[in-house]
Design goal:
Belongs to the diacylglycerol/lipid kinase family. The protein has nine helices and 15 strands. By secondary structure, it is α+β, with helices and mostly antiparallel strands.
Length: 298
């Protein structure tokens, strides 16, 4: 009999996933899987779910939660050399990475997609020794992500990011950055930057329309320091996916970036890694091509 380990975050999104546990168990048992379940109860305790696990113990790992939960599971799987296919159930607020895999938001349909066993190798980013599956960002986006009340975010979903983003515009303060790729060095004052492995982040589904999760390249997008009325107009372009050629956008493609603050007197900012607080600048970001296997609906 095959074995699957489900790791779920009961506090993710609208908190409805626990109501579907029995359905998950039944569908997988009917498909001749033995099901093991781990319920996360605190930040960081996902490590306990995979502690002492060998890749011979299971045929698949499944995580139900948002991008932050997926990030933790991926980091632990890589740490323990668990070369197993990962199923992602979009039970969080934005679910950007799951959206890029076209995983259904209907949980029962998502279970069925995983059971179809369509597996794809995808890229993973690494920043200062920590892995990420979707985005490493700094500036406005990281502030928005960490300043949203959990209940507000769970109630309004993606709209919470939009509302908070608009609210933060008058408080924008540019960061003097030095952006290094394998080909060039750019110095620019920016309000935010994102290094994306997929098309979306924070519920903004058209941030990097040309991105693919398996192409061996990052998409780098930064918003230059500019007048607030231009930023407001750019915000609308970003929602529509028409921003890459805007004069206030820096758009780059590469598999390596080094980001540092060019003003040593400036207050160093922390980054955002898959919706969770990441390391402070400077950042060294590299891409691991086809690092993990995931169940997809592509």
């Amino acid at each position: 009999m095959k074995k699957v380990k489900l790791i779920y975050n009961p506090m993710s999104g609208n908190k409805k996933f626990p109501n579907f546990l029995d359905s998950f168990i039944k569908k997988f048992q009917d498909s001749e899987y033995e099901v093991s379940i781990f319920r996360t109860c605190a930040n960081g305790n996902i490590s306990l779910a995979l502690e002492g696990v060998d890749k011979a113990d299971y045929d698949a790992i499944v995580v139900a939660g948002g991008d932050g939960s997926v990030n933790e599971v991926v980091n632990e799987m890589i740490k323990h050399d668990l070369d197993l296919p990962l199923g992602i159930i979009p039970a969080g607020t934005a679910n950007d990475f799951a959206n890029n895999l076209n995983m259904p938001t209907d949980f029962n349909k998502c279970f069925e997609v995983i059971l179809k066993n369509n597996i794809q190798k995808v890229d993973v980013g690494e920043v200062n020794g920590r892995y990420f599956i979707n985005v490493c960002a700094g500036g406005l986006l990281s502030s928005v992500s960490h300043n949203i009340d959990r209940n507000f975010k769970n109630t309004l979903g993606k709209m919470a990011y939009y509302i908070k983003g608009i609210e933060q515009i008058p408080k924008l303060k540019a960061i003097p950055l030095e952006i290094q790729t394998k080909k060039e060095i750019i110095k620019e004052d920016v309000y935010l930057f994102m290094i994306l492995n997929s098309k979306s982040a924070g519920g903004f589904n058209k941030l990097a329309p040309k991105a693919a999760i398996d192409d061996g390249m990052f998409e780098f997008i930064a918003v230059k320091s500019s007048p607030l009325h231009e930023i407001a107009a750019l915000f609308l372009k970003i929602l529509q996916g028409d921003h890459l050629n805007d004069k206030n956008i820096i758009y780059l493609r590469d598999d390596y970036f080094k980001i540092k603050c060019s003003d040593h007197t400036y207050d160093l900012h922390f980054s955002d890694v898959d919706g969770e607080k990441g390391p402070h600048l400077p950042l060294e970001v590299s891409l691991d091509h086809h690092k993990i296997k995931v169940f997809t609906n592509l």
